[in-house]
Design brief:
Shape: elongated
Strand content: under 5%
Order of helices and strands: HH
Structural class: mainly alpha
Number of strands: 0
Radius of gyration: 14 Å
Number of domains: 1
Distance between the termini: 10 Å
Largest sheet: none
Length: 55
């Protein structure tokens, strides 16, 4: 059980790092438009759902 908690914590950290990188790249490219924010919310929802299922 402890190993699974540590893995979940590592995965969450990796997701946060990748997400921060992607957001910075998008901002460099001109930022989000309205469709981009919708996609962002869908992606975040999918990531958190996958984490909930994995744990």
């Amino acid at each position: 059980m402890k190993v699974l908690q540590e893995e979940a914590r590592l995965i969450a950290t990796e997701i946060a790092v990748v997400w921060a990188y992607l957001r910075s790249r998008v901002q460099q490219a001109g930022g989000w438009n309205e469709e981009g924010t919708v996609v962002e919310k869908v992606i975040l929802t999918a990531i958190f759902a996958a984490l909930a299922i994995a744990v």
